[in-house]
Input
Amino acid sequence: MGDVGPLISYYWRIFSNIDIMAGQPFGFWTLMAFFTIFSGFALLFLTVLIYRADPKNTKNRFIAMMLFTESIRCLTVSIFYAYPYTLEQVQSLYFIRIIFYTTGVMLVFLYLSAPFFYIENRFSKWVVESYKYRAQIIIPIISFLIILIGSFAYGGFHEALGEVLWIYCEGAGDGVGATASGDDLTYTPYCDESLSSQYPLMWSATLIGPFATIIFFIPVIAAIITTIVITITTREVFKSGTTSQKNEIWAIRLGFIGKTVFQILSIIALVVFFSLLPIESGPELTWFNNDVYNYGDIPTWGIVIGVVIPFISGNLVLAALFEGFVFTYAVMKHEVLGIDEKLRKTFTTALFAGLGAILFLVGTELMENAAGVGWLGGVLIGIPFIVLRKPIFNMFSKISISVMPEAHTDNEEAYLEAFSIAMDDGIVTDDERKMLNIQAKTLGLNDERVNHLESYYLSKLEEE
Output
């Protein structure tokens, strides 16, 4: 039912007409959906990396399961905004909502399990051992049963988790609308003339049900509890543990702190959003309901909804990415050559790209409202951003180093020890260089990694 024409043309229409203040955020929502999906695949890559590094290691299996769950959550959080689905496709894809909220319950069990990897007692050992085989099956089953029982207590999946609205505008005037449950909308969608540059437009939007709201809050509480418990139970490690152990605990704890901060920001945004909605809210509150939405006098909630919903999805993804980076660093810093440096470079690049995207969006939006030429704002923001890229990169590099300190594998430590012996007299002779080359080849270190290790050693000498 309905047709939007060639897909490239459709995306160009919604991307080139983003104007949140004018109630036209459709392209922005779609861009955020692409970002969440891309991030989900990035987390899948980290999952495979961790698991393949040591499949028999229980901690690797646990972290891999956690990141896999986070990746599925990222892939499903905004998928209904990524493509102009037909009504039949929306109805058949509703199970994705069930998967999304099931992963939310799974994360509660996974978060609360993390401290047991750093506690020495019989029950902790049992919990840790369960992640060799049993937990990978039991946790998804229990989580789905919780979703199933809770949803039926509220009257069904659509009532408990939230409806998915589908609206199609072929042109200005009356449109067509329905829901994933098959019910008709209580109003006839109206396609405003101001959106004509984006027609034909096919739009899907997800609502948050009462049970879904509860699930949204619970992982935050679990992350806070986990952060506190890990902090308390690992005090002894920070007093007498090795540098490696301290770095690992620091990374794990930081991952949960970051996760908590991002989720709290999402909750604050959600509370602010609900506080701005009219008393009577629900499927009727859309950009296509002419009874409550007037493009000539756009209501506050009509602007806020265009920012808050993508902000919540983006926060969820940023929290998962941050967690993924630091957990990968914690688990693999002594297993994969140069993993810490690669993660820091990726983390720095992601920060730079994220800041650039935000500034581009802000500049475009401001210039669109000021002069009606949005792309000019992007150019005015982009030029100084590119010119100042080096100091910005240096700033983000310092942040990434503080989050993921320099760490080395056993082979890298062996090379550093050999290099320190060669540097006892302050220089490396030709014979010493030959021996170091042989040592590097034996340890499996390439020239790029050797140069990095030697630069790291020399920088430490200068600091002393």
